[in-house]
Design brief:
Shape: globular
Bound molecules: UDP-4-deoxy-4-formamido-beta-L-arabinopyranose
Radius of gyration: 19 Å
């Protein structure tokens, strides 16, 4: 019996692969390597001393997926695969809708034929949309997403909700991630964006490494404690452990349930920059720049539901996030 991870060589997928293996699960990874590298499988093996079975496969390709389900007894799927660049989703929306919706639907069809009934989905806090007030709670309305990337998460949540309503045997867990940062303490796996990073932490680590000459802080006139944006940064290893708990939950509960995976605490952009400089003893030159289009002032989770129902709570703080992110960056080839 195995657990299938789509997008399992990516940033969050690879960390979850490690935690699942450490928890005793047999896993199978499917990834088309469009935004990751096959060497990640070696790194997962180095960390866990167990090599996951790997298929270089596109989740939109039904025949490839069927082969994976034919060759393995898959009891649950964690669906990480998907396009995730917010800006690109605005300029190429069709590509985003095609890929992200198609992969989820194809997966559901193949799972149904194979009698596989547990689906854990990588959703995002972005589904709370532009009008929501913090802290975000799972029962708040979703929608009014700021970009097509966010709408794909919203739509897939809806598809999975309907699928679970129609099939009494199905267990769906929707995990709404806040802002994952950091890396595995080994420094072997982490976030490695292609080209100029869009997200804050990779931009900080690349500036620290001398690959960028300075960080632009997008706005210091928000209604926050220091005027910069506030986010719920969560260590990726904590996030990965949340998936192990979600899988245990899906194994025991039918229907569709949604959980925030955040720490419940917001920190500002300057908190993160200052903590990074302090724990790593390295200067990050930065300049205040205009606000970035589409950004909101503040986002953080109410993390109570995951604590109560999953028995999961983030353990690692901003210091570990900054230390581990830099450790990974230094190791990057
Ligand atoms: C965080 C803060 C920026 C870069 C996005 C997606 C979300 C999820 C994660 C993933 C904001 C500021 C950033 C920089 C800066 N998507 N910033 N200078 O926008 O909260 O969330 O990524 O796969 O769905 O929306 O994350 O890291 O881009 O920004 O000042 O160079 O850092 O303005 O306040 P965000 P982020």
């Amino acid at each position: 019996m195995s657990i299938l991870l789509t997008g399992g060589t990516g940033y969050i997928g690879s960390h979850t692969a490690v935690e699942l293996i450490n928890a005793g699960y047999d896993i199978v990874i499917a990834d088309n390597l469009s935004n990751s590298e096959a060497v990640v499988i070696d790194y997962i093996e180095t960390i866990t001393k167990k090599r996951p079975k790997f298929y270089q496969a596109d989740v939109c390709d039904k025949a490839q997926l069927e082969k994976i389900f034919d060759e393995n007894k898959i009891t649950a799927v964690l669906h990480f695969a998907g396009y995730k660049a917010v800006g690109e989703s605005v300029s190429e929306p069709i590509k985003y809708y095609r890929n992200n919706l198609d992969s989820a639907i194809t997966l559901l069809e193949v799972m149904q034929s194979a009698g596989c009934n547990q689906f854990i989905f990588s959703s995002s806090a972005t589904v709370y949309g532009t009008g929501a007030t913090v802290p975000y709670k799972e029962e708040m309305p979703t929608g009014h997403c700021a970009n097509p990337y966010g709408w794909t998460k919203y739509m897939i949540e809806q598809i999975l909700t309907d699928a679970a309503k129609a099939n009494n045997n199905l267990s769906v867990v929707l995990l709404r991630y806040f802002n994952p940062v950091g890396a595995h303490e080994s420094g072997l796996i982490g976030e490695k964006p292609v080209g100029v990073p869009n997200n804050l932490m990779p931009y900080i680590t690349q500036t620290a490494a001398g690959m960028r000459d300075h960080l632009s802080v997008f706005g210091n006139d928000y209604d926050t404690k220091d005027g910069t944006g506030v986010r719920d940064f969560i260590h990726v290893v904590d996030l990965a452990k949340g998936h192990v708990k979600a899988l245990e939950y899906a194994n025991k509960n039918l229907g569709c349930e949604v959980f925030n995976l955040g720490t419940g605490t917001g920190y500002s952009v300057l908190d993160l920059v200052n903590t990074f400089m302090e724990v790593n003893g390295i200067n990050i030159p930065y300049e205040i720049a205009p606000r970035r289009a589409g950004d909101i002032a503040t986002s953080y989770a109410n993390a109570t539901k995951a604590k109560e129902k999953l028995g999961w709570q983030a353990q690692l703080g901003l210091k570990e996030m900054c230390k581990d992110a830099w450790n990974f960056q230094k190791n990057c080839k």
